[in-house]
Amino acid sequence: MKVVLFCGGLGMRMRSGPESLPKPMMTIGARPVLWHIMKYYAHFGHTDFILALGHGANAVKDYFLNYSETHSNDFVLSKGCRNLELLSTDVSEWRITFVDTGVSTAIGERLRRVRRFLEDDDVFLANYGDVLTDAPMDHIVEDFLATDDVGSLLAVDPQDSFHVVRIASDGHLTGIEPVADMEMRINGGYFVLRQGIFDYLEEGDDLVMDGCVRAARDGRFRAVRYDGFWAPMDTLKERSALEDMDRRGARPWAVWEHPAGLLPARRQEDLPPRDVPALDPADPPDAVPSLGLPVVGLPAVAP
After folding, report:
1. pLDDT for 293
2. Residues near 114 by Cβ (< 8 Å), separated by ≥ 6?
3. Stretch 254-261: mean pLDDT, rounded?
4. What sign does the CA torsion over 252, 191, 295, 176 have?
5. How far apart are CA 279 and CA 48, in angstroms?
6. How far does the chain reach from its first CA to its final CA, in angstroms?
7. How would you classify the pairing of strands 123-127 and 2-7?
8. Does 189 score more than 90 pLDDT?
9. Of the chain's two ends, which shows fewer C-beta atoms within 10 Å, N or C?
10. Regarding predicted confidence, which is higher, 134 or 235?
């Protein structure tokens, strides 16, 4: 199953100057976050990648054209350092298609511009290129295939720590509530899509606010609730937190490092700081048995 990775964002909140790297190329440890995401998908057998490039396209291309497996794998040197034997490999099974999709292009249009590389795949995966998770993608895909929907997205708890302020019409404060305590979910950036999603995308569209919303109106888009590890890398603060986790060996997103079906026990301090609200008993009961994750259709959107 092919994986489309959107790699063209400017990453304004991460930039230190006009020539900064594209956000997916910002590193966690020795490798870019893009590499960590690709390793995640490869763990589940998805090794055919399509990189929808934009800002900093040459940085992405050059990284893989000059890729060194020795940076993340053990190896043996012999014969006066003339013979290199890798003891493991990262990318030997990967197939990567690099497609320039424009610097300022909306994500839905980026997807449209790589469609010609997806024509043999009725179902494919897509990702923002800057978010990490340990969600069981194999089960998510399996359950999606049992539906006739055109797409699904991972729905996660908000990571932000701000408070929602409620104000009466006369200006008096009526309530303050931490966003983490509210019964709400945000788009986690992990998509399973069918070719039918293109029926909901027009030239220049955004994938979520145009394509997904239109599909939701027709009852053909789903959201997978996930309460496990999920972390974005939108800001320098978030990157710093992930780098700290990586240094301590607390890498829940590195599912390829764990025995099949097992994830290491995580200490509370290894998780992003947030309060996780309990699920509302009134939530739809159509849970996925293999995951224990409720899967709900996106709410209807008024035309």
Report:
1. 42
2. 4, 50, 52, 97, 99, 101
3. 77
4. positive
5. 36
6. 33
7. parallel
8. yes
9. C
10. 134
Mean pLDDT of 214-231: 95
Q: Quote the CA–CA distance of 207 and 104 in Å, as a whole number.
A: 14
Q: Is 38 exposed, middle or buried (0-12, 13-18, 19+ CB in 10 A)?
A: buried
Tokens (6 digits) for 295: 């899967």
pLDDT band at 228 (very low <50, low <70, confident <90, very high): very high
Taking only the tens place, the pLDDT of each residue in 96-147 is 999 999 999 999 999 999 999 999 999 999 999 999 999 999 999 999 999 9
Q: Please state the three-class secondary structure of the chain as a single string.
A: CEEEEEECCCCHHHCCCCCCCCHHHCEECCEEHHHHHHHHHHHCCCCEEEEEECCCHHHHHHHHHCCCHHHCCCEEEECCCCEEEECCCCCCCCEEEEEECCCCCCHHHHHHHCHHHCCCCCEEEEECCCEEECCCHHHHHHHHHCCCCCEEEEEECCCCCCEEEEECCCCCEEEEEEHHHCCCCEEEEEEEEEHHHHHHCCCCCCHHHHHHHHHHHCCCEEEEECCCCEEECCCHHHHHHHHHHHHCCCCCCCHHHCCCCCCCCCCHHHCCCCCCCCCCCCCCCCEECCCCEEEEECCCCCC
Q: Which fold has domain 2-157+185-297?
A: Spore Coat Polysaccharide Biosynthesis Protein SpsA; Chain A (3.90.550)
Q: The tokens 């960590």 sit on which residue?
A: 36
What amino acid occupies position 20?
S
- 31 forms bridges with which residues in the sheet? 28
Average pLDDT, the chain: 82
